[in-house]
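Handover notes (outgoing to incoming on-call)

Open items:
1. Glutamate dehydrogenase: sequence verified, structure written out, both below. Nothing else pending on this one.
2. Nothing else urgent.
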Amino acid sequence: MVVALLRRTPGTLASAVRLHRAAIATPAARFMSTHVTNAACNDDEPNFLGSVETFFDRAAKISGVSDNSLKNIRAVDAVLSVKFPVQMDDDTQVIIEGYRAQHSRHRLPCKGGIRFSDEVDLEEVEALASLMTYKCAVVDVPFGGAKGGVKLNPKKFTPAQLERITRRYTMELCQKNFIGPGVDVPAPDVGTGPREMSWIMDTYRQFNPQDVNAAGCVTGKPISQGGVRGRNEATGLGVYYGIREFLQYPEVQKQTGLTGDIAGKTVIVQGFGNVGYWAAKFFQNNGAKIIGIGEHDVAAYDPNGIDIEAIFKHRAEKGTFRGFGNAEILETPIEVMERECDILIPAALERQIGLRNVKKIKAKVIGEAANGPITPAAHEYLVSQGKVVIPDLLLNAGGVTVSYFEWLKNLSHVRFGRMNRKWEEAGKSKLLTLVEENAGRQLTPQERRAVIHGAEEHELVYSGLEDTMIGACEETRATAALKNTDFRTAALVNAIQKISTVTAQSGQMFL
Ligand code: NAD
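Glutamate dehydrogenase structure tokens:
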């Protein structure tokens, strides 16, 4: 049922807000996508939401969960759709569209990023929200899944306009109870970052001055606004940990012919934003060779390896990879994914590998840093060719994992390590003194410092993230072996079973 509300907000023009249960789109519509990023897909391949549902259905069949429970898990709980005007510098007004979908409220708050892109639509947001639910379950983060989107190209707006739009969108979320530390907690996604998260928190706080936990209404904030050290790089670091883990598995080594070392591996990354940049950086820091990077305009390819900091600086100064060192520039950037490499990391957008290009993919391991980069038919083909696909809901879960740590920090109102660091150092120091007495040798100041050093906040965050990723990879691997299936289906089976247990044990109100 769709409920349409027309409201007038003080000092602005009328704002049209629709708040409704989901299931608006017809199944047919789900198989027609309007995206311009469809070069990789045949027309009859499902759109992003259709892809997520197809993957879900495959896993559902072997999950052992009842049909009623599956129906309940699969449906998007609620969506908010808003339209509001924003004043441009020449005094004209443009109407901005925004969405927030809460896929599952089996655990609260709901959690999921906010995307600023001119390709945002309701179904994309629903697809991303669904993935968030499954992702949180895979890494045991006790949240439901949500996602938000504002349909605009951030490059076409000034910072002042973007701030007005972000604040206005947040106001809509506040008024409809779609944001709050116990309700729904956004985070960065494509086109947004710490700056936007700061504006969101400040706006929420203005509307909720009595909420002592206001900082927990959004994650991915700058440190000065209650952010946690390590959140910025968390998704890329999680991608690194996850791929490193899979390469250790004997069955993966057998299937791909690759060794377990990161050092010496050739890597191609598509998308050089937050996730792609950090993933590339961690791979390079650990000895891998980044030989290709794709962006929306061109791609850079150099079989001798690309220095990540140097190309980042070049692009920041010139706005493009063109003219960077000896790199070959590919005018059709998606083609960089077809080059020979050990590991391919799509880190840009959904639907980048479909039936039109899947047969040209040569990488042995494909690590989905982006959400939904491979269509179901392409995934099936890759798996049939013995390639290892590490799925988005597992591999890019580092972001939400560290968002969870940030939220915990906000609710506890204290930096990680503040209460115990010195205490632990003092304890270890006493222990070392005893060891020195028994060994008959004094440690050097450097040796002593290395042992007694108490963990800083970012070290605790990295450690929690690494532990989470290793555990989730192991669980996925175990289910893949048990069910004799691919890693995506296995991760989804784990998610479905965990969500079903939570909903079953909490009982059903008003059923
Ligand atoms: P971002 O906006 O920081 O970066 C995206 C990059 O991709 C930009 O540099 C953009 O220019 C580039 N790009 C856009 N279209 C492209 C194309 N067709 N080909 C190549 N490059 C293209 O966004 P991000 O936060 O890095 O997110 C990237 C992906 O990772 C998205 O799918 C997002 O949903 C997913 N993700 C992000 C996070 C996070 O913490 N930011 C967490 C989990 C998943």
